[in-house]
Structures
1.
Amino acid sequence: MIKTIIEDLEKTYQNKPKRLKHVFGVRDMAIKLGKIYNCDLSKLETAALLHDITKYYTKEENIKIIHDNYDNALEIIQGYNEFIYHGFSGRVIAETKYQITDNDILSSIEHHTIGKPNMTIYEKIIFISDYTEENRTYDNCIKARKLLEKDIDLAVFTAIDDSIKFYEDLGDDVPKTAYEAREYYKQIKESNHD
Ligand SMILES: [Fe+2]
Ligand SMILES: [Fe+2]
């Protein structure tokens, strides 16, 4: 399965070497973290490889996939901005094209863009690996990568907080889930430092 996915990715991203590098960077970071947190590494590898599988679908293509596959499609389409849709559509492609049924993999793909409160370790690892993989060079990503060595929840909080500020500065709508996630990880941060 992993071999097939890699072959597909190499074809899909033939003209997008940076995206391919990013995907492999997320895979490497996720495996590194998975070893620390005793996770099933093949689940993490699969989720990492597929997390951006629909990244270059058009807004209309993503909306159609969400519409056809989610009971709460309207809530998703209205509640999230278009940059976040690919998490939801990516999950569907993982299920339909690659017959993946494991929820650790599927929900990690679905929630990799902005996270959510109370993430599982798989969701958290894919989310933070996407933000901190070695090809990310923004100051905020480097800051989160450093925090990750000490405390994954603190790194997650920082990544969500920075992403919210980024979207706010752009004037984009920030999904409610992002604020809820920030609040959730802020509470953890504060309780850990009491
Ligand atoms: Fe993504
Ligand atoms: Fe990504």
2.
Amino acid sequence: MRLQWNSEYSVSIDEIDNQHKELFARINDLDSAIKKGKSIGELTKVIDFLEQYIIYHFGTEEKTMVDHGYPGFQLHKKKHLWFNNEFAAMKGKLENEGPTPDLIMLVNHLLISWFSNHIRTIDRLLGSFIRGTRTDQGRAEAADGTKQTLHE
Ligand SMILES: [Fe+2]
């Protein structure tokens, strides 16, 4: 399974949409590297490259939330922290065990499914808040997002 960006993923903030496109490319690169049977050393490089981008990207989103006084900031940030912990565990598994079938499942679940869902729900709420700071609709959607559970 590969990630392919389309308008369903648009959060209507160009900077964040562009970062999501880059993120998808890097996740797909990791997926391909695993499928091509690359060595642990090579896979570690790809995963480090992806990790750096995720840190940068979450930083952009969190700064955007703070700058706009976004009410869903704490919840959204908790989701990023949850992801970071899972990612660190995945990286440890790769370094210790190599690209086992288990790791392939983790990549599918954590990177492909999680990002795909996160962008289409949580990130889009941020986009609708920023777009809708002028409308009641945007405020209502953003407020609703703060009621969601912390787990995916
Ligand atoms: Fe996010």
